[in-house]
């Protein structure tokens, strides 16, 4: 039984599978880099930076030291990216960390990390869709178009209609603003977050049509997104007053910095999804390392700049909301720029959803091809050369979740799932350096013992900074995954049928 659980895929077998892939190889280094930037810059910088700086009901804020939080998280992701880049240069297969674990640890560990990635990408998609929904609703509200309360939030959320006609969730801030008069306002319970549901369906349709078409749309939106960051910095820097707003710099000390880092880690989630496009890249062993590391470095520098300006131009209390960038600009009188940013974010944030949904579909496709999940999930459309059935299933599943759950739950589950994957990838690189030093590698992580050790250390520290309830949900999901593996995967494994260990 132990041999069954620890059976491994050889590097030679994985390379052969890559050569035999039925997916269309159409992505170059520019496309891959744009996918990386499109995945990274989104909900994290435009939505979560405010909460990470100001704090929430259950988490301390980093304050202006959010810049250090981004440095800590950026270093963790850089070390992880170096490990991913080495694996991608060795194993150009769509399975990302799942496939890497299959060759390093064995099937049971590959299943565990694959199941973990399903969680990471699913709830990541959900968090992005919900974050986009918030910006969309605020944008249309500004034009006097108010969605009904029952179509505006997660299922079961109590909603109230303000005198302006705007429906909002009932919160302590709303209660404090309106006091006893709040009881006289119309109320209702939300049934579904309709904008989040619909944007997910739209992205799924694009991914169904083709990877090249998706990459083109992504590249256009990423260029617009980078311009938005530049516009914010251009108009924000004149209002930068660190002597006023950076005292104290770290109001909650190192604990606040690490808590902030654990939260804004979500801002980096997605660069690893680029590795799931290996079988659709023209030269994956060369282009994937360049794209992943390049996208990460560019985005980290932009994140640090935005965090510094954002926390240095307004009090932290202004940032404690779901649209901190726009609110900060409004508070310093840049209303037109804030409107431009809101429109731009609404238009471009779906790139994150596109890349993360792309990643989840490719993970399911690869696990299905290995026999660990239903073979239907690895069916490729004859005309579009995309995993059509997996695309439909993922689209419907994510759309339903996005319409019914809360963003904070989704973001924290994404973070712990991603960090766990990073730890296993770092351990996997170390194992293969020792076990297969002769394996062809077009990219080698420098000083791999140091890189892997720091990746494991920082990622583990960030995991420990997450709330206990997140750990409980994560372990419950992983426990369910083990049951599914022994009920289905272990008996249908393609590797078991071929007898190769």
TrEMBL record:
One GO molecular-function annotation for this sequence? amino acid transmembrane transporter activity
**Pfam families, alphabetized:** AA_permease_2 (PF13520)
* UniProt GO cellular component terms: membrane
| Keyword list, A-Z | Membrane, Transmembrane, Transmembrane helix, Transport
Top-level lineage group: Bacteria
User: Where does the record place it?
Assistant: Membrane
- Transmembrane segments in this chain: where? 27-48, 68-87, 108-132, 190-210, 217-237, 257-276, 288-317, 337-359, 389-410, 416-434, 446-465, 471-488
Instruction: Provide the membrane topology annotation.
Output: Multi-pass membrane protein
Which InterPro entries does this entry report, sorted A to Z? AA/rel_permease1
**Membrane as UniProt keyword:** yes
Q: Which PANTHER family match?
A: CATIONIC AMINO ACID TRANSPORTER 4, INNER MEMBRANE TRANSPORTER YGJI-RELATED
**Name of the molecule in the record:** Amino acid permease
Q: List the source organism.
A: Neolewinella litorea
């Amino acid at each position: 039984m132990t041999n069954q659980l620890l059976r491994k895929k050889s590097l030679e077998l994985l390379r052969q599978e890559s050569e035999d892939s039925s997916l269309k190889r159409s992505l170059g280094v520019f496309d891959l880099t744009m996918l990386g930037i499109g995945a990274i810059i989104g909900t994290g910088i435009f939505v979560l930076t405010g909460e990470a700086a100001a704090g929430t009901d259950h988490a301390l804020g980093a304050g202006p030291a959010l810049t250090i939080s981004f440095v800590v998280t950026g270093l963790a992701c850089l070390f992880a990216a170096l490990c991913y880049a080495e694996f991608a240069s060795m194993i150009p297969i769509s399975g990302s960390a799942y496939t890497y674990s299959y060759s390093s640890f064995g099937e049971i560990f590959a299943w565990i990390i694959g199941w973990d990635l399903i969680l990471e990408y699913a709830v990541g998609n959900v968090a992005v869709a919900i974050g986009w929904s918030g910006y969309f609703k605020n944008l249309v509200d500004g034009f006097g178009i108010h969605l009904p309360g029952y179509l505006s939030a997660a299922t079961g959320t109590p909603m109230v209609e303000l005198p302006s006609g705007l429906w909002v969730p009932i919160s302590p801030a709303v209660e404090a603003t309106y006091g006893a008069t709040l009881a006289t306002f119309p109320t209702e319970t939300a049934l579904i977050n309709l904008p989040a549901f619909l944007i997910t369906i739209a992205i799924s349709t694009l991914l169904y049509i083709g990877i090249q078409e998706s990459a083109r749309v992504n590249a256009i939106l990423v260029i617009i997104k980078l311009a938005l960051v530049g516009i914010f910095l251009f108009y924000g820097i004149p209002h930068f007053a660190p002597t006023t707003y950076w005292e104290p710099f770290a109001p909650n000390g190192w604990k606040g910095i690490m808590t902030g880092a654990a939260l804004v880690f979500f801002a980096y989630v997605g660069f690893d999804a680029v590795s799931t496009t290996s079988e659709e890249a023209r030269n994956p062993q060369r282009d994937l390392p360049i794209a992943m590391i390049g996208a990460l470095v560019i985005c980290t520098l932009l994140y640090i700049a935005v965090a510094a300006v954002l926390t240095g131009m307004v009090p932290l209390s202004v940032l404690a909301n779901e649209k901190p960038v726009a609110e900060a600009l409004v508070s310093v009188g840049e209303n037109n720029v804030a409107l431009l940013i809101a429109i731009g974010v609404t238009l471009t944030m779906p790139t994150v959803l596109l890349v993360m949904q792309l990643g989840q579909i490719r993970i399911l496709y690869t696990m299905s091809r290995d026999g660990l999940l239903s073979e239907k999930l690895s069916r490729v459309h004859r005309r579009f050369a995309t995993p059509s059935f997996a695309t439909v299933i993922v689209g419907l599943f994510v759309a339903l979740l996005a319409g019914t759950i809360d963003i904070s739950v989704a973001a924290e589950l994404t973070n712990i799932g991603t960090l766990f994957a990073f730890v296993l990838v770092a351990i996997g690189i170390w194992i293969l350096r020792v076990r297969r030093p002769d394996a062809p590698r077009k990219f080698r992580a420098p000083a791999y013992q140091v890189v892997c050790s720091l990746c494991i250390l920082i990622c583990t520290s960030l995991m420990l900074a997450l709330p206990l309830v997140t750990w409980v949900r994560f372990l419950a999901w992983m426990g369910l995954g083990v049951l599914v593996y022994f009920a289905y995967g272990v008996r249908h494994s393609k590797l078991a049928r071929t007898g190769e260990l």
